[in-house]
Write a structure and sequence with these properties.
- The complex is a heterodimer.
- Helix content of chain A is 0%, strand content 50%.
- Chain A has no helices and eleven strands.
- In chain A, strands 2, 4, 5, 6, 9, 10 and 11 form a seven-stranded mixed sheet that branches. In chain A, strands 1-3-8-7 form a four-stranded antiparallel sheet, with no helix packed on it.
- Chain B is an all-beta fold.
- Chain B has no helices and eleven strands.
- In chain B, strands 2, 4, 5, 6, 9, 10 and 11 form a seven-stranded mixed sheet that branches. In chain B, strands 1-3-8-7 form a four-stranded antiparallel sheet, with no helix packed on it.
- The chains are: A mainly beta, B mainly beta.
- Chains A and B meet through strand 4, strand 5 and strand 10 of A and strand 5 of B.
Chain lengths: 107, 119
Amino acid sequence: DIQMTQSPSTLSASVGDRVTITCRASQSISSWLAWYQQKPGRAPKLLIYRASSLQRGVPSRFSGSGSGTEFTLTISSLQPDDFATYYCQQYNSYLFTFGPGTKVDVK
Amino acid sequence: DVQLVESGGGLVQPGGSLRLSCAASGFSLSTFSMNWVRQAPGKGLEWISYISGTSSKIYYADSVKGRFTISRDSAKTSLYLQMNSLRAEDTAVYYCAGDSNSDNYFDYWGQGTLVTVSS
């Protein structure tokens, strides 16, 4: 199975900050990576697919990059609505796996 | 509007069974591949099962293989998860998640249903 890791596990930031979250896969997954945002008590929401494609309706301050084993999610200017937990998910193989999550909280 | 609504969660004793349902509206389930994803209290997301649009491909995570069964109804309006031999570690919110692009990322999610396994 492909294992996913994320860093950091928690990130404290302020409104307006540029935020970067890293996701690593235990083997190459090409660009078969998605990013989700989840708020407490809510279902996850798709932000990015194929490593860098922005899901329709998602603000352009979110961007994704990377391929192979290392990926990043960047929020160019953090907004109040962005405090949440972010998960990466690989879909290179049918045993899909999520990263452990990165919580973005208020500094 | 595409909507997914889960039901069937509740309290069950260890070793017991439960059947979860996911009702689809605004689209035909046959056009989507579907998944079940769970989240234990305070923990991260865990993918547990996949079924293709034609039901020809089905996959399970090792943690539930042999105990859980994913299926759709013939009218393709509902998705199911039959859960047998439940354990305390199966306690979680269970989400159905749809893939409208056959690309294996999840662009539609239900609101989740809580399953608690406890004596």
